[in-house]
Amino acid sequence: MTRRLKGIAAAPGIAIAPVVHFHTTLDQIPMWKVEDDRVEAEKARLLGAVTSVTENLSSIQQELAGAIGKQDVRIYDAQMAILHDETFLKEIEGEIEQHKCNLEVALQRVVARYESVFEQMENAAMRERAADLRDIGRQLVGALVTTGRQIYTANGADYLFAADEFLPSDAGILDREHIRGIVTAHGGKYSHGAILARSLGIPAIVGIDKVMQETSNGALAILDGDAGVVLLDPKPEELADYERRLQEQRSVESRIAELRFQPSVTPDGTKVRLMANAESVQDVARLELGTMAGIGLFRTEFAFMERRQFPTEEEQVSMYRRAVEIADGKPVTFRALDVGGDKPLGYFKMPDERNPVLGWRGIRLCLDWPDILYTQLRAILQASAEGHVRIMLPMVTTRSEVVRCREVLDQLTADLRANNVPFDPRIEFGVMVEVPVMVSVLPEILPVVDFVSVGTNDLVQYLLAVDRDNQRVAKMYDPFHPGVLRVLAQIAEMASEAGKSASICGEIAGDHWFTPVLLGLGYRELSMAPVFLPRVKLMLRSFSLEECRVIARRALSLHSTSAVRKMIHSEVLPRWSEQLRGSDGSPAEEGAPS
Question: How far apart are the C-alpha atoms of 586 and 581, rounded to whole Å?
Fold first, then answer.
């Protein structure tokens, strides 16, 4: 009988292979008392270990430089910073001096103390930083008790990497030719390990409690990185279904390559603007801009998070201007600073909040600290002189918030004009719809904005009262819920009646199974992670607008998530399979999301 293990989808894709356990902890750590006359010599061992780990991290960076983006390689810069942190190293030396213990034990104790501090933080992103510290501690101990770095293989066979945790240093010891997927007991979707898995194109699921106990070494398993599910002891028909989906994964690339530069238009001529989400100028530079309509979401907070202090106006102007120049006339939608919640700034003291996701974040923070808002908006305005720029406000709940920001924008444009500083006076101004109350106040807000963009990631979890990164309730997070679809329909209808554009910039924009539904509901602009653009383009080119409307009407009439998914499966799958016919004429099928 098939056993299903549910976790958090960290990197998309399907993998079928035997499970191989990887034990990341060192089982036997030596322990001895250090005599007074040997304390300095013991402390000196730390320098050698740091040198060894530094060389190892540099080697991994070089090895992965061609496989992952420059931004992701910087994960190892963060580890280097920990490794060479003077406070961290002095605490280790102090442990040796005070307790007369050997270096390996001192390392474990200090790392454990730091871990305890991180893991008690309410903020998920900060808790995940404990993994970097744990990884450094493990590497230092490993440098002391082992010799050389061994590549982890499964005797030359394909395998699923199963471990308590996937840490950045593990990327350097994997047999990347044969690893097919990663499944771990710990970690989050935004941990450095998960980011590396996505960048390397390895399907991954994290947060499956007791995965090492629940799986058997060498047992065949299916890893569904799209649904966040591992299937153990799969039935023959399940195995056959996923093997077909694997074949689809392989064939879709060649089919998509044929049309990636084709227009994003339905067979009956309805144009749809497909745009990309970006987190940095480097992301924009890596885009194949000829395949898309522009940047639908530029998350400015990541430029703030990677610094040790607030970026100056000049630094922000330089960054935003460069992104606009690269876009070469295509729109770049800058989201105003959205920190707080799961995105803290290390140099900006945030209050302790019982529920930070519902707390002081987004536009609330910016309006309470107007210097932050003024500086950023002024920088974006100056960058607008180089091309097509849009400004978008996050976490809006009232018309007054929008009006206050509009007044700031008007004040800044008047100041720039008076000082002969160039900017685009036609700059577009919009808001995100990600809080449920916005649905009822949207008619009041639409007259004072140029566009709205639906942030479905937050909107869906707020509507369903489900934390999608909480293992106990993550299975209840489902954007195909009929109530969610009806809310999306309301938003699109209100925007259309007001003559304003409405876009989707959450994850469902990149879910090609959702594409016909979104088009049928009235959305004509979808912004997503670049990796999903080709599939969405292929799907929208498969259905006429009237067919999309029929599918959307049927979905809105249903009363359960399972009924919606069943309908999508019956209506969309046949056409999708037809689009993916291989050169031999045989269809490469893909099962609808379960």
Answer: 6
474 contacts: CB under 8 Å, gap ≥ 6:
6, 7, 8, 228, 466, 467, 468
Backbone angles phi, psi at 428, to 5 degrees: -85, 145
Q: Active site residue: 101, 405, 505, 548, which one? A: 505
Question: And the tokens for 160?
Answer: 């699923």
Taking only the tens place, the pLDDT of each residue in 378-388 is 999 999 999 99
In order of start, what are the domains of the chain with their CATH numbers? 3-22+152-239 (3.50.30.10), 36-145 (1.10.274.10)
Return all residues near 213 (Cβ < 8 A) that are at least 6 apart.
none
pLDDT in tens, 35-69: 888 899 889 999 888 998 898 888 888 777 666 65
Q: Are 503 and 485 in contact (CB under 8 A)?
A: no
Contact predicate 212/162, CB 8 Å: yes
**Is the predicted pLDDT of residue 350 greater than 80, yes or no?**
no
- As a whole number of angstroms, the distance between CA 277 and CA 275 comes to 7
More confident residue, 314 or 511: 314
Residue 190 has a pLDDT of 60
**Closest by CA position to 433, among listed 366, 500, 504, 362:** 504
Active site residue 192: yes
Model confidence at 280: pLDDT above 90: no
What is the three-class DSSP state of 167? Answer: coil
Global pTM reads: 0.67
In the annotation, is 84 catalytic?
no
Q: What confidence score (pLDDT) does residue 469 get?
A: 57
From the candidates 192, 388, 481, 512, which is the catalytic residue?
192
85: three-class secondary structure by DSSP: coil
Report residue 502: phi and psi, to 5°: -130, 130
> What does the buried/exposed string (b/e) look like for 453-487 if buried means 16 or more CB atoms within 10 Å of the residue's CB?
bbbbbbbbbebbebebbeeeebeebbbbbbebbeb
Tokens 């990347």 sit at which residue?
176
